[in-house]
Write a structure and sequence with these properties.
The complex is a heterodimer of chains A (494) and B (390). By secondary structure, chain A is α+β, with helices and mostly antiparallel strands. Chain A is built from 15 helices and twelve strands. Chain B is of the alpha+beta class. Chain B has a twelve-stranded antiparallel sheet. In chain B, strands 6-2-3-4-17-16-15-10 form an eight-stranded antiparallel sheet. In chain B, strands 5-1-7-8-9 form a five-stranded antiparallel sheet. Chain B contains seven helices and 25 strands. The chains are: A alpha+beta (494), B alpha+beta (390). Chains A and B meet through β11 of A and loops of B.
């Protein structure tokens, strides 16, 4: 049997503890000679409960998470009042599966990810209104919500298309809830979108508070966890999966070790958490204890990649058709890069057949580094086509293609090339500026490379898309009013 | 095309006719270790073909030859041996290298009854090493040509050191992964370049080149030759022969063969600015240290902003995630003040190899190339493109 190198030290520690001294060691750390925990052994927990949020050692912060309720469905409802109180779902690209549900749809047992083709009859039977994704509308509505939120806080982080973190540090606790209610009412009035607001001393707790606010009608869409009389009691009622950053795999691991609710995770031993869930898991636990570890990102992080990919409405088998698709996606991604002031250093093209096919399955990708960062569409399309030719195999029914700019750098400050003069680069930029201006003023795709084609029979299916009410003049909502009746009612007014 | 003098360039195992008789040889462990380490430089870490992971061992006369090859670069080292029977065999290169490096310093006996199995004996150690048939090993290319230059080892090392760092590692522009070697008369020029920088080094050779040479040699091959030359190269000469698609370096006991890179190297003479309107003379060390410190806060872009004011050079670096820095370096300035941004990492690489106490930085405009030369010589020219000003 191997001798224990640390035997003397452990003995000294034990004696020291017996004498009332505590040797410095990490809280709850397991000594090396202790029996190894079995794979599913319960996670060690702290001997005493962690302090409640108000006793947090650092100055307490107040984060509010504003989350739009069933966002895509809510956007559709803004422009169609008849949808109120009725089951509504929004489908993913190509009308594949359910990606958003109204509360009424959820009550019918419709799950996220349900394939449309399997549930079509059910939807008809229960009069479920079905929409294709209308990303132009959702992006514009999102921008309106964020613009409405901005004046309510000195610090805001737009976290996703339907979520924002707001700093409410400057509000004393009694006013915080009232302020949150004002925010909620204003967003609803100005944009028509219902939101829920959760407040906590950390972003993770604000997320949890938001989830509770959304599901608890009596809270009227707002929960301030900092002012809650028994936050631990509340955390004990929440499943561990509810925690931001705890996905299904981690949740299964935690449950295997006896951690089923949020309070148990909060009280879990730090060393154990770090070992099993890495430092990211430890950060989550510290956040649950009220120590803010995830700061606000006030400026959107620098873009690291840009992707443009679509599933085809029908299988595509020829290189010519794929080239058109790849040219189109590259052009769109390049336009986005220019809009965001970045240039591309490396790009990737991928193609694949349907994952559900039993035969004739193929998937591949190719990557190229560009000699110098560029956002010049013709150069990018030429590179993308060369990559496509490398990976294309004839005879396969391709279901999707895409282009990813895997390395982008800010255009301002980009490295110049020895072999391209600044004048040439300026000329390219000028051409792209003109193209972008025309497309902005006259409509997307008004000027494009011929290689991006005009007939795209393989385009994505969006058979149930609502009009792009807020971004296309020709799709703007038309409101009819009975003028005679209105005039009569006007004259009747005192 | 004339054939190169056989004693110089033609390898002993030309045409792939590896003698596959019974190899029996005894070599000194230390000499074997050194030879193995040299040949191993050509063995790829991951190989597409199994034979590329092998050494060819060939005994003939009073020599043992050890060859490693990845089909692009082939290194053959010879060492003295007592050869009882000529023949060849292959062994797994890394296994053989690991084994030889741990054997005691004594005679090592190598016996191969078949070309894919070698019995190694050294004092009380005995190993049977499996390989592949020697016929599968790529033959040493037959090299002929009339473009040969003889050059001192020291000069080769210096030329490579001051240019290879600037060569590109981007395989999509293969020409730039090589060094352009141009030799005519007694003059030799080496140029390494990538899209943002170029280093050109020229010098005089003691002996004129026979014919003329203008070839793109993989930077990797040049660096390997430079490494093989070692540090003590005083008085050592090597011969370089260039054919249409290959280059052969003949060093004492070592032959290195590499393919040449096809295509045209950019016309470097055209890229070098002929005029400047601002010139800064600065201590190399002071600039290098200031740039290195600034890079700590420059973030991923490695962008350093240089501006002159009176006789001072201000270096500023900044990145959102780390902070900002400001360094001031005393300089001698001619011409107007200028503000220009460079990739600090590239600049530091050059300053690290320039080997001069001070450098002259010649500039014209914020978006025009900067030229840097050592103050005490014209033989090295370095050009770096700036970055856009924010």
């Amino acid at each position: 049997m191997a001798l224990d190198l640390f035997e003397g030290i452990w003995k000294a520690q034990a004696e020291s503890s017996a004498n009332g001294h505590t040797l410095p060691s990490s809280r709850g750390a397991t000594p090396p000679h202790a029996p190894h925990p079995t794979p599913n052994a319960p996670c060690p927990t702290l001997n005493s409960p962690t302090p409640q949020f108000p006793n947090s050692p650092t100055p307490q912060r107040a984060f509010a998470l504003v989350d739009c309720n069933n966002f895509y469905v809510s956007c559709e409802r803004v422009f169609n009042a008849k949808l109120a109180g009725r089951p509504v779902v929004v489908l993913s690209n190509n009308d594949g599966c359910v990606v958003a549900r109204s509360e009424e749809a959820k009550a019918l047992g419709i799950e996220m990810g349900d394939p449309f083709f399997q549930r079509e009859a059910f939807f008809r039977e229960h009069a479920v209104t079905v929409y294709s994704s209308n990303y132009a509308l959702y992006a514009d509505m999102s921008q309106r919500v964020m613009q409405t939120l901005a004046p309510f806080t000195p610090e805001m982080e737009v976290y996703s298309i339907d979520e924002s973190f707001l700093s409410l540090d400057h509000f004393p606790p009694p006013e915080r809830t009232a302020h949150a209610r004002t925010i909620r009412a204003t967003v609803r009035r100005w944009t028509g979108i219902p939101v829920s607001i959760g407040i906590g001393p950390t972003k993770t707790l604000a997320k949890l508070a938001n989830a509770v606010a959304k599901k608890t009608p009596v809270l009227d869409g707002v929960l301030d966890l900092i002012a809650h009389p028994d936050p631990d009691g509340l955390l004990e009622t929440l499943d561990v999966e509810k925690v931001w950053g705890i996905g299904p795999e981690r949740a299964a691991l935690l449950r295997n070790h006896g951690i089923e609710n949020v309070l148990q995770l909060k009280n879990a031993d730090e060393a154990w958490v770090k070992k099993r869930l890495t430092v990211m898991g430890l950060r989550t636990v510290l956040e649950l204890r009220g120590t803010s570890c995830i700061p606000m990102e006030l400026a959107p992080p620098a873009k690291k990649s840009i992707t443009c990919s679509r599933s085809f409405g029908r299988a595509v088998a020829t290189l010519e058709e794929l080239k058109v698709a790849v040219a189109l996606y590259t052009s769109r991604a390049a336009e986005k890069a220019r809009r965001e002031g970045v240039a591309v250093m490396q790009l990737q093209v991928f193609i694949h057949t349907s994952r559900h096919r039993k035969t004739l399955r193929y998937a591949n990708y190719a990557t190229a580094r560009l000699p110098m960062a560029t956002s010049y569409t013709p150069e990018l399309v030429e590179t993308a086509h060369a990559l496509l030719e490398r990976i294309f195999r004839p005879g396969y029914p391709y279901s999707k293609a895409g282009v990813i700019f895997t390395q982008v750098v800010p255009e301002a400050g980009a490295q110049l090339s020895l072999f391209a003069t600044p004048e040439e680069m300026e000329k390219r930029k000028a051409v792209m500026r003109v193209v972008d201006d025309l497309n902005r003023k006259r409509g997307k795709g008004r000027i494009q490379l011929a290689s991006a084609g005009t007939k795209r029979e393989w385009s994505m299916r969006q058979e149930k898309r609502s009009p792009r009410f807020t971004t296309r003049w020709n799709e703007i909502l038309v409101v009819s009013a009975d003028l005679e009746e209105e005039a009569a009612s006007d004259s009747a007014d005192p | 095309m004339d054939t190169v003098e056989p004693t110089l360039l033609a390898p002993q195992s030309a045409n792939g006719n590896h003698k596959t008789g019974h190899l029996r040889a005894i070599v000194d462990r230390r000499a074997l270790g050194e030879a193995v380490a040299t040949a191993l430089r050509a063995v790829p870490t991951r190989s597409a073909l199994p034979i590329q992971s092998h050494f060819l061992l060939a005994a003939e006369g009073n020599q043992l030859r050890i060859t490693g090859s990845d089909y692009e670069l082939q290194i053959e080292q010879t060492l003295p041996a007592q050869v009882a029977s000529s023949g060849s065999a292959t062994v797994l290169a890394r296994v053989f290298a690991d084994l030889v490096s741990t054997l005691p310093d004594a005679d090592v006996q190598l016996v191969a009854e078949e070309s894919d199995k070698v019995l190694l004996t050294c004092m009380s150690s005995e190993y049977e090493l499996l390989g592949l048939p020697a016929e599968e090993f790529p033959p040493m290319p037959e090299v002929s040509g009339d473009n040969i230059l003889t050059i001192t080892g020291g000069l080769v090392k210096e030329l490579v050191r001051q240019t290879a760092f600037a060569a590109s590692d981007d395989p999509s522009r293969p020409q730039l992964t090589g060094l352009n070697v141009v030799a005519e008369g007694n003059e030799i020029k080496l140029c390494g370049a990538e899209m943002a920088r170029l280093a050109l080094r020229s010098d005089e050779m003691e002996q004129p080149v026979s014919g003329s040479i203008n070839a793109i040699i993989p930077a990797r091959a040049m660096v390997e030759v430079s490494r093989i030359l070692g540090n003590d190269v005083e008085g050592e000469t090597l011969e370089i022969g260039v054919t249409q698609n290959q280059v052969v370096f003949r060093l004492p006991n070592v032959t290195v063969v590499s393919r040449l890179i096809d295509g045209k190297f950019p016309n470097f003479e055209k890229v070098i600015p002929k005029e400047w309107s601002k010139k800064i003379t600065v201590s190399t060390d002071a600039l290098l240290i200031a740039c290195r410190r600034s890079l700590a806060v420059a973030g991923d872009s490695k962008r350093l902003l240089f501006s002159t004011q009176d006789q001072q050079l201000h270096i500023k670096a900044e990145s959102g995630g780390t902070g900002r820095g400001h360094e001031v370096v005393e300089v001698v300035k001619e011409g107007d003040d200028i503000e220009i941004a460079f990739d600090g990492k590239l600049l530091v690489e050059f300053l690290g190899i320039v080997g001069a106490e001070a450098v002259d930085i010649e500039l014209t405009a914020p978006l025009s190339p900067g030229v840097i030369r050592p103050v005490d010589g014209e033989s090295l020219v370095y050009i770096q493109m700036p970055m856009h000003l924010m």
